[in-house]
Design goal:
Blueprint lengths: L7 H51 L7 H8 L4 E6 L11 H14 L6 E5 L12 E11 L2 E9 L6 H42 L13 H46 L6 H28 L5 E4 H14 L4 E3 L6 E4 L1 H19 L2 E7 L3 E8 L33 H11 L3 E6 L5 E8 L5
Parallel strand pairs: 6-8
Antiparallel strand pairs: 1-4, 2-3, 3-4, 5-7, 8-9, 9-11, 10-11
Length: 445
């Protein structure tokens, strides 16, 4: 399962939330540290002042009345009592407690050994602090008499963690809403650019994109518009040039045919006539190929299974052996006329060199694959890439007697690639050739 978003807007949201969580955690730990130091100083400072005031009060109280005075000085949070010893709570004191005891002794003007401090588990020790004997202090009044003080600490920030989580959740929701709205607006030109590039790559007409958004995005859109214009101009110039050459060849070919009519009928004239016939077919095929390249067709949703079945039925009506067993309805967004043209070229090759063709339709949800199987001699592995080049015919299995010009597979590949797909060849183990046409479902928007 992918945890990291794939879209730019999703990644902006994820990075924003990550930055928010990290900043909140850093703030939380800084606050906890500073809060602990603040509470320790405040609580210990107040306790030292209160204990010093209590000791000064006891100086004016008779010994037999000290117990009542200590009880009167006690409050709910700070309680005093007299005892002959400091108590067991001060055994094994921590370094922090010793430092506080030293500071208190200095502030009260007393010897250090007459002051004891014990820091309880509830004082300034994290979010699990509880009210209780957070701090104990014992001060020796005179020989055999110690004034014990017990400070009850109620942490005013004990609910801070819960409040922080609520604040974090509210901030995250608001930030996600803001980032989603702004990121969608920021990435809108990129989505338009991606869609236009996909359509232009399939040979569709694409109008110049509006240049708006951030400066970097505007430059990218402007560069795409310039590229689109240059490529369209280049393709148009190439198409016109090849079409003009193929068209102009008709005149000298026709003139040569007429001249041959006045020559004796022998092997040389028959060979020259065959050559002229090949040139005429190549010229017509070139014109057809360029018209196919320049042609544009609107895309629409079709039942590919029905389209293939109807095409095979046309072949069967003409007496050809073409086998296809239609399955369930298979919807695909495509240019149906172009798909029929590509399939017709592949099926023609299968019938010419394999005498029969069998079509299989496969669906793997992401793409649709049309396999055309024949029983011919197959193709050498080293030659498979060449057969898609224009005017290439493999003489070992495809002779001029077949009447082909070598443009059928070129046209088929152009159509398939125009749909964002691919066409591949493979020799079958049982003999024959397998042509696989893979058409992605997302190839056309």
């Amino acid at each position: 399962m992918r945890m990291w978003p794939r879209s730019l807007a999703g990644r902006i949201v994820a990075l924003t939330l990550l930055a928010l969580v990290i900043s909140q955690l850093v703030s939380f730990f800084i606050f906890m540290h500073e809060r602990d130091r603040f509470l320790e100083r405040v609580i210990l400072g107040n306790m030292a002042d209160n204990v010093a005031a209590a000791m000064r009060t006891l100086e004016f109280v008779a010994d037999d009345e000290r117990a009542d005075a200590v009880a009167a000085l006690s409050t709910r949070d700070l309680r005093y009592r007299l005892a002959p010893t400091p108590g067991r709570a001060f055994a094994g004191r921590s370094d922090a407690a010793n430092r506080f005891a030293l500071d208190m002794a200095r502030n009260m003007g007393m010897e250090t050994d007459r002051v004891r401090v014990a820091i309880g588990p509830g004082l300034a020790r994290g979010p699990n602090r509880r009210a209780g004997d957070a701090l104990r202090m014992a001060v020796q009044i005179d020989e055999g008499a110690w004034l014990r003080a017990r400070q009850m600490v109620f942490d005013p920030t004990r609910h801070w963690a819960r409040s922080s989580l609520m604040t974090l959740a509210v901030s995250a929701v608001l930030m996600v809403l803001i980032v989603v709205l702004t990121s969608r607006r920021i990435t809108a030109p990129l989505r338009e650019l991606a869609g236009a590039a996909e359509r232009f790559g399939r040979g569709e007409e694409v109008a110049p994109l509006p240049e708006y958004g951030a400066e970097d995005i505007r430059r990218s859109v402007a560069a795409f518009n310039r590229m689109r214009e240059r490529l369209a101009r280049y393709v148009a110039d190439r198409t016109r040039m090849v079409a003009a050459i193929a068209h102009d060849l008709r005149t000298p070919i026709t003139a040569l045919r007429l001249r041959l009519e006045f020559l004796p009928d022998d092997d040389n004239t028959r060979s020259m006539a065959a050559t002229l016939e090949d040139m005429a077919r190549m010229s017509e095929a070139s014109l057809t190929f360029m018209r196919e390249e320049a042609a544009t067709e609107a895309t629409r949703t079709v039942d590919l299974s029905a389209l293939v079945d109807a095409l095979c039925e046309d072949y069967r009506a003409a007496g050809a052996t073409v086998v296809f067993e239609p399955d369930a309805r298979l919807a695909l967004v495509c240019r149906p006329a172009a798909i029929r043209r590509a399939l017709r070229n592949v099926i023609d090759n299968a019938l010419t060199y394999g005498q029969r063709a069998r079509l299989v339709l496969l669906d793997d949800r992401q793409a649709v694959t049309i396999q055309v199987l024949d029983d011919g001699p197959g193709i050498d592995e080293a030659e498979m890439a060449r057969v898609f080049d224009p005017f290439v015919r493999l003489e070992s299995s495809r002779s001029r007697d077949t009447g082909g010009t070598g443009l059928g597979l070129s046209i088929a590949r152009s159509v398939v690639q125009g749909h964002g797909g691919d066409i591949t060849l493979a020799n079958r183990n049982e003999g024959g050739l397998s042509v696989s046409i893979r058409l992605p479902r997302t190839g056309i928007n």
